[in-house]
Amino acid sequence: MGLTIGEMVPAFSLPATGQRTISSDGLKGRKAVLYFYPKDDTSGCTVEAIDFQRLYPEFRAAGTEVVGISPDGLRSHGRFCGKHGLEFPLASDEEKSTLQAFGVWVEKSMYGRKYMGVERTTVLLDSDGRVARIWPKVKVSGHAEEVLAAAKAL
């Protein structure tokens, strides 16, 4: 991953659910969790989203926005949010420019086949827009709780 702790987050602006635009500038002034995930409505991504949703009120109480980012389009994101009652925004990066800027669009391998995809990664930003913590190659179980603890401590 190309990011380092203390570095300013790469500039980005992405369309998101709820007819919103999520941008690096728009997140300044509050802490933010950007969690990058491969695909809407797949098993691991669904568990991760539901975990963040379950803890979303606590993230908000800690002054922290939660944003999911994947290469899926807004229509897919909208269905995913509706199906699982997600209240936080899901941002769409169909061009993969933000995924590349964060270093999470990587070559992956499954059953010997190589392909490009999202490496499940979470980035915690401080209120100045600096990288406070990075979780690369996330294992979903217990992850949202760990991120919440870090956000509360920030």
**What's the total count of β strands?**
9
- Overall shape: it is globular
Considering DSSP H and I runs of 4 or more, what fraction of the residues is helical?
25-40%
Tell me the span between the first and last alpha carbons. 22 Å
Overall average residue pLDDT: 95
The main sheet comes to:
5 strands, mixed
* Major sheet: arrangement of strands: 5-4-3-8-9
What percent of residues are in strands? 25-35%
Radius of gyration: 14 Å
In terms of structural class, how would the helical and strand content be classed? alpha/beta
- The low-confidence parts are none
H and E string: EEHEHEHEHEEEEH
Count of helical stretches: 5
What does this structure look like?
By secondary structure, this protein is α/β, with parallel strands linked by helices. Helices cover 32% and strands 30% of the residues. The protein has 5 helices and 9 strands; from the N terminus they run ββαβαβαβαββββα. The strands form 3 sheets. It has a 5-stranded mixed beta sheet. A two-stranded antiparallel ribbon has the order 1-2. Strands 6-7 form a two-stranded antiparallel sheet. α2 runs parallel beside α5. The longest helix is centred in the middle third of the chain and has 19 residues, at 43-61. The protein is globular, with a radius of gyration of 14 Å. The chain starts with 12 loop residues before the first strand and ends with a helix.
